[in-house]
Specification:
The protein has about 350 residues and is of the alpha+beta class. The protein contains eight helices and eight strands, in the order αββαβαβββββααααα. It has two domains: about 250 residues, no CATH class; about 90 residues, PDZ domain (Pdz3 Domain). A hairpin with a 2-residue loop joins strand 1 and strand 2.
């Protein structure tokens, strides 16, 4: 089942990405002779709307063959090559935009069904209690929520740490599994620390789909720069032998898909949303062959005021795609080593 859900999530994500390129081209009157989900020998194909639609053997990518994007030397510009700068940019960014829209829709579904996590700043939730600490001796447990100290409601969750400002006895009002408790705590500076790790209580607020969609867009705007940095650090780490622990490839995603499927539809939607955000960010990286690399060449062509020859551009994109393939191989070997080693 893990492999099944991996193929479904990746297949849909790739289809949506390539559909973005397809729609951006067709809306500008540019033909798309071939639309393929997957690489290699076609398993299934049919003709419709002037395009051959394919599902191919290797489900790790896809392509929309936009007319005129791969210019032939000596031939007059046609299709994509005849578009304006902004028309070409729209075709290149179409896939990224569609992945973002799908990710936002999936997150909106999660926020509608499960809820959007929001911190309650006026309540302190206990995350960890250190063994042998004062907190453990007075009876605090992970999951407890401190709502008042000495009968006074917390103004901010950090008020819990202010107990150390006044030695002596304190009364903590704690909510545990819906039940309100009173715990006595005597602070002595010799203790050094209370012995808890805590933060604001997080509640899940269910939102209408449209509001969740907006929240998802805002959330991704904060997350995308962090994801881009993580990709750059991860790629650099692969080549120096120090990849980050959270860097995963296809094998790792298969395992994650299986775990998400066991947890239910909401977990699958969350995973699919993160994969679509990752695809959007990765494709925007200025690596030749990817959308970001092609966009960079387009911008350089406009800024420098001269064209690159089709042969040079094709060579640059080929080198970029070879680099991406090498990354995929390295990450896959790392996934397999981690799987075999149990790490």
């Amino acid at each position: 089942m893990s492999l099944f859900w991996f193929i479904v999530i990746i297949g849909v994500s790739i289809f949506v990405h390539e559909l973005g390129h397809y729609l951006a081209a067709r809306l500008q009157g540019v033909r798309v002779p071939v639309f393929s989900v997957g690489f290699g020998p076609p398993l299934f194909r049919f003709q419709a709307a002037g395009t051959e639609w394919r599902i191919a053997l290797i489900p790790l990518g896809g392509f929309a063959l936009v007319e005129g994007m791969a210019e032939e030397p000596g031939e007059p510009p046609r299709g994509y090559a005849r578009l304006s700068f902004f028309g070409k940019a729209a075709v290149l960014l179409g896939g990224v935009v569609m992945n973002l829209i799908l990710a936002w829709a999936l997150l909106a579904y999660v926020f509608q069904v499960q809820g959007l996590p929001r911190p309650v700043e006026t309540e302190a939730q206990i995350i960890e209690v250190l063994p042998g600490s004062l907190a453990e001796r007075v009876g605090l447990r992970p999951g407890d929520v401190v709502v008042a100290i000495d009968g006074k409601p917390l103004a901010h969750f950090t008020d819990l740490g202010r107990i150390k400002e006044r030695p002596g006895r304190h009364r903590l009002t704690v909510v545990r599994e819906g039940e309100r408790l009173e715990l006595e705590l005597t602070w002595d500076p010799k203790e050094g620390r209370i012995g808890v790790r805590y933060g604001p209580r997080v509640e899940l607020v269910k939102l209408p789909f449209w509001q969740g969609f907006v929240e998802a867009a805002v959330f991704s705007a904060r997350l995308i720069p962090l994801m881009a940095k993580s990709f750059v650090v991860g790629i650099a780490g692969l080549f120096v032998g120090k990849p980050p622990a959270d860097l995963v490839g296809p094998v790792g995603i298969v395992s994650m898909a299986g775990e998400a499927a066991r947890q239910g539809l909401v977990a699958l939607a969350q995973l699919a949303a993160m994969i679509n955000l990752s695809l959007a960010v990765f494709n925007l990286l200025p690596i030749p062959g990817l959308d970001g690399g092609r966009l960079l060449l387009l911008v350089l062509r406009r800024v420098l005021g001269r064209r690159f020859t089709p042969e040079k551009e094709a060579l640059v994109n080929l080198v970029g795609l070879a680099f991406v393939f090498l990354l995929l191989v390295l990450i896959t070997f790392r996934d397999l080593a981690r799987l075999v080693g149990g790490g």
